[in-house]
Design goal:
Layout: H1 48-59, H2 62-69, E1 73-76, E2 81-83, E3 88-91, E4 96-104, E5 107-114, E6 120-125, H3 134-141, H4 161-165
Antiparallel strand pairs: 1-2, 2-3, 3-4, 4-5, 5-6
């Protein structure tokens, strides 16, 4: 419904032209190894433009936002973070942010948007250290201090659970 033409949970040959190899610490490019089985929480192959379309659709869908944000589960009380339906939630005095990140071997992704202003961004990287870029980008686009960047899972460089289970 959001016309995400460059996205899918199953690898398609059409993705290959835009797929960037990872660059591990030794600097030798490593070609991607697509997952053989689709996994909702892990195998979304997408472009920044497609994911941005999705993020805009979520932010502009009042009923969806209500479901996402109405009963979050506390994750880190000291940071004021919670999990909504499929999204991390950060509440401040003036705003509510929804956010999500991805962590596959050699790739990191981050997306966030302000429910109040609609401002946000999508960041896709081909580095295990790619999440380090999210906070400086957020500082430019989303005023204020965002405690979500102190959340320990955003600093964990280890391979995700799904990657371990499915040997990726």
């Amino acid at each position: 419904p959001v016309a995400m033409q460059q996205s899918g949970y199953v690898w398609k040959d059409q993705f290959a032209a835009n797929f960037i190899p990872t660059i591990p610490a030794d600097g030798t490019p490593r070609q991607p190894r697509p997952f053989a089985t689709p996994i909702a929480g892990t195998t979304l192959y997408t472009s920044a433009a497609d994911y941005a379309q999705f993020l805009v659709a979520v932010i502009n869908d009042a009923p969806a936002l209500q479901w996402i944000t109405k009963s979050p589960v506390a994750v880190d009380i000291s940071l004021g973070l919670g999990w909504g339906l499929g999204w991390g939630i950060e509440r401040s005095e003036n705003d509510l942010l929804i956010w999500h990140w991805g962590n596959n071997p050699g790739y990191r992704a981050f997306a966030t948007a302000s429910v109040q202003t609609g401002n946000g961004f999508v960041m896709l990287t081909n580095s295990d250290d790619g999440l380090a870029l999210a906070q400086p980008i957020a500082a430019q686009l989303l005023p204020g201090t965002h405690k979500l960047f102190q959340f320990y899972m955003l600093h964990n460089r280890s391979v995700s659970f799904a990657c371990k289970v499915f040997n990726r």
